[in-house]
Amino acid sequence: MKSELSFSAADMAQTRFAVSPMWEVVTSYRLLRADQEHPLHRRWTAQVRRRLAEAGLDRGWLAVLIPADGYLADFLNPTPAEPFPTLAEELAAIRRTPAERVHVELDMLAGERDLSRSARIRLLRQEPQAALEKITEEVELYWEFALAPYWDRIRRLLEADVFHRARQVAEHGAGHVLGDLHESVTWDAGSLHLVRRHCSVTRAENGSGLLLVPSAFAWPQVLTRSVPPDPPQLAYPARGIGTLWEPRTTGSIEAVAGVLGRSRTLLLAELDTPSSTTELAHRCGLSAPGASQHLTALRDAGLVSAHRAGRSVLYARTTVADALMSPTVRN
């Protein structure tokens, strides 16, 4: 299917970018449901899939609303009111979804899959507000398991994409940027053309403007949201995804150890992927109490962050620690 989205001067003026936590929830969950292993995200999926299965998140509300392909519930991606909304703000918008909108989107989901036996779908139809509360609670749990420990790294990638494209708009104009988002998106004579679309997107069915949302997990696709009277949304693969999960610890461990001490430096080096206290203690040759004490000190110094994942707490390096562990440029 091919879609054509026409642009007036007012539409161009109202085209904007946003980094959306909920788009990352939707695209990352869909990626985890895919039959084939995703080469760009193999290191992430290897860590996350087991946690989700143990928590039952592979068979809950999100499993119903986000199929592996095809249409997904649009109310999961409310229009961001600002360029960098928080997850809490987007969850609040989901809870405000009108019952009529919920029913429309459930009909669209049911048109592609047999959901007649789903107790969750029945509850969503009969008591949408109560069900939306349960859905947002599950999203919060998924966030803690799958995205919060990695969010600093993901957010930097997405923000870098936004700033790069904003600079391109200033240098070359919005048309150039729109035509450079993805191979399936082209700009020509005042219209944006999208090919290989599952759902049609046209200006007649949407509000004015366009919301462009970079995503770490959308590749290799472009996803769209078309819910009048909101502006259409287009989630596209952010630049630099291939480097997202590359190890960042390439600096001199000895130099950092001279400041922080060897045990704390080793812990930071091992946190290239979020890990629990027990895992870190084993890999660094420390006792669990000793590792916990060092991690507390690193957290208090702003070098690591802690994220609860079920019965465990996962520690992750912060952007400050990433900079500390990166190689130093010497003249």
Helix-strand layout with pairing:
Blueprint: E1 3-6, H1 9-13, E2 15-17, H2 21-33, H3 42-55, H4 61-65, H5 87-95, H6 99-112, H7 119-126, H8 128-147, H9 151-172, H10 174-178, E3 185-188, E4 191-194, E5 210-215, E6 223-225, E7 233-237, H11 253-260, H12 262-270, H13 277-284, H14 288-300, E8 304-309, E9 312-317, H15 319-325
Secondary structure class reads alpha/beta
Major beta-sheet overview: 4 strands, mixed
- Total strand segments: 9
* Topology order in helix (H) and strand (E) letters: EHEHHHHHHHHHEEEEEHHHHEEH
Structural account:
- There is one protein chain.
- This protein has 331 residues and is α/β, with parallel strands linked by helices.
- The protein contains 15 helices and nine strands.
- The protein folds into two domains: 3-241, no CATH class; 253-325, Winged helix-like DNA-binding domain superfamily/Winged helix DNA-binding domain (Arc Repressor Mutant, subunit A, Orthogonal Bundle), CATH 1.10.10.
- The protein has helices at 9-13, 21-33, 42-55, 61-65, 87-95, 99-112, 119-126, 128-147, 151-172, 174-178, 253-260, 262-270, 277-284, 288-300, 319-325; strands at residues 3-6, 15-17, 185-188, 191-194, 210-215, 223-225, 233-237, 304-309, 312-317.
- The strands form three sheets. The chain has a four-stranded mixed sheet with strand order 2-5-7-6. Strands 1-4-3 form a three-stranded antiparallel sheet.
- A hairpin with a 2-residue loop joins β3 (185-188) and β4 (191-194).
- α13 packs across α14.
